[in-house]
Write a structure and sequence with these properties.
Blueprint lengths: L5 H14 L13 E6 L2 E7 L8 H9 L7 E4 L13 H8 L3 E4 L11 H8 L3 E4 L3 H7 L1 H9 L3 E8 L4 E3 L11 H13 L2 E5 H7 L9 H6 L10 E5 L18 E6 H6 L1 H9 L3 E5 L1 E2 L2 E2 L1 H11 L4 E4 L3 H10 L4 E6 L9 E2 L15 E9 L2 E8 L2
Parallel strand pairs: 3-4, 4-5, 6-14, 6-15, 8-9, 8-14, 9-10, 10-11
Antiparallel strand pairs: 1-2, 1-3, 7-16, 12-13, 15-18, 17-18
């Protein structure tokens, strides 16, 4: 039985609903919602919309005005206690003279990590933590994972036939899955901070790797055509990127990742790429294989990416799976068969017996039109 009252659960559920409005738009910040309650009535509500803009608590307090004094504040994530682009929300709650703050979960960000709670308690405010914590965690899976692991949360997307094929032998692959599945993929892209593919996919398909949703759809996600695109990351260990690749002329950033050794051996190519305006990053590698942990660490630390989506061919997909750093596999499977000569989902090396098998657990199965999407999660 819950230790929290029905009213606490009700108002926190409302705060979580508010936070969902920022699910796509707050990156790299977490999505947060807040509700101010005075005498059993909601007098203020707020949700964080974009990084650099006011946090949920401050918006809710502004709406509540003088009615915040003596009220209870509900917030889905521990109020911040440090000066970033905005001043500390814990201080704002103290200044507003609320008497009680109910928090869904402590913020694992080392700049907060309990300090927000301490500030409130030191000011004589009653604090309770843990109301609907699991639901609150689901709002910010990538943010929380990065704070706790120094790596982004990785979702690998595959579209395949019933016989596990992703493209014909010729490379033809449009379209395996239906329109409903493709719409879901674009929403997944909009959630991601970075989208990773391999140079083989670029050379074979010349993909756009953009978010292609209508203005109306993006408005519902608190996004625009300019703000919706994740960083495109192309893994190119041998510097084969064509300067006329389609994605280079499209909205959003493209980062080319290669090995340090390749960059040092080919200064002329590096200079040409830089002159063309291409962002390039050199990471650790073994022979012609880029180190996946180095790639993800760079994105987490230098680009503040919380969520990564991988859309690639079998070689890159297989390498990511075998790295052990994929958190979820989203397999969209269409009710078609493509034959034994078509290309497989994953190129996996060194698996010769059942003892070597890689195991994932089925998290969920849902349907998009005629297709089925199975989400697999890495086993602990």
């Amino acid at each position: 039985m819950s230790q929290f009252s029905e009213k606490d659960i009700f108002y926190m559920a409302r705060a979580i609903e508010l936070a969902k409005n920022g699910f796509y738009s707050t990156k790299p910040n977490p999505a947060v919602g807040s509700v101010i309650v005075q005498d059993g009535e909601i007098v203020g509500e707020g949700w964080h919309q974009k990084a650099g803009q006011p946090h949920a608590e401050r918006i809710a307090l502004a709406e509540a005005g003088d009615q915040a004094k003596g009220a209870t504040a509900y917030v889905t994530l521990e109020p911040c206690s440090h000066h970033g682009k905005t001043p500390p929300c814990a201080d704002a709650l103290v200044a507003a003279e609320v008497t009680r703050v109910v928090i869904a979960m402590v913020d694992p960000n080392p700049l907060v990590a309990g300090d927000g709670v301490a500030r409130l308690e030191n000011a004589g405010i009653e604090v309770e933590v843990g109301v609907l914590e699991l639901e609150a965690r689901e709002l910010n899976t990538g943010f929380l994972y990065k704070m706790e692991n120094d790596l982004p949360y990785v979702r690998l997307k595959i579209a395949s036939s019933m016989d596990g094929r992703t493209a014909m032998e010729s490379g033809e692959s449009q379209w395996i899955t239906g329109e409903e599945s493709r719409l879901e993929v674009h929403e997944m892209r909009a959630q991601a901070g970075a989208l990773i593919t391999g140079i083989g996919t670029v050379l074979a398909d010349d993909p756009s790797l953009t978010v292609r949703l209508s203005d109306e759809q993006l408005a519902e996600m608190n996004l625009t055509q300019e703000s919706c695109h994740p960083i495109r990351v192309v893994l190119d260990p041998n510097l084969s990127m064509p300067l006329n690749a389609k994605m280079l002329s499209l909205p959003g950033r493209t980062i080319l990742m290669t090995s340090r050794a390749t960059a040092e051996r080919n200064p002329e190519i590096v200079e040409e790429l830089h002159a063309s305006g291409i962002e390039m990053v050199a990471v650790a590698a073994e022979e012609d294989r880029l180190d996946i942990k180095s790639i993800l660490s760079y994105l987490a630390q230098e680009e503040q990416v919380n969520d990564v989506m991988v859309e690639s061919g079998a070689i890159v997909a297989g390498a990511f799976v075998q790295s052990g750093l994929v958190n979820e596999i989203h397999c969209f499977m269409a009710p078609i068969f493509m034959g034994q000569n078509a290309k497989p989902m994953f190129a996996l090396e060194g698996i010769s017996s059942m003892q070597d098998k890689l195991e994932y657990g089925i998290h969920s199965i849902d349907r998009f039109g005629d297709d089925v999407r199975m989400i697999l999660k890495a086993k602990d």
